[in-house]
Amino acid sequence: MFKDRVIKIVRDIPKGKTLTYKEVAALAGSPNASRAVGNIMKGNLDKDVLCHRVVKSDGTTGGYNRGKDAKKRKLREEGAIK
Q: Which sequence spans correspond to the domains of the chain?
């Protein structure tokens, strides 16, 4: 199932690294499904799936179900952004 593949990929993003929604979609086998990845991340409540590590292709952080400021803070703390 696509959602399960997305969750596994995002769960395995190491601290200090990010992937784009498009990269996650491609790794999950559906390169044109970046919007679906975003929707899966939006609904994620599992603390082991660190969805703040998924960002937009244009270099901006994108949305986060706990707030954009929280996403930026977490990424800064992990050294993924400045």
A: 2-60
The per-residue pLDDT for range 7-26, each reduced to its tens digit, is 999 999 999 999 999 999 99
Rounded to whole angstroms, how far apart are CA atoms 40 and 64?
Answer: 11
Which CATH number is associated with domain 2-60? Answer: 1.10.10.10
Q: Just list the catalytic residues.
A: 51
Residues 55-72: tens digit of each pLDDT: 999 989 999 988 999 999
Cα gap 26→78, rounded to integer Å: 24
Torsion on CA atoms 37, 32, 13, 81, rounded to nearest 10? -90
| Three-state DSSP class for residue 55 | strand
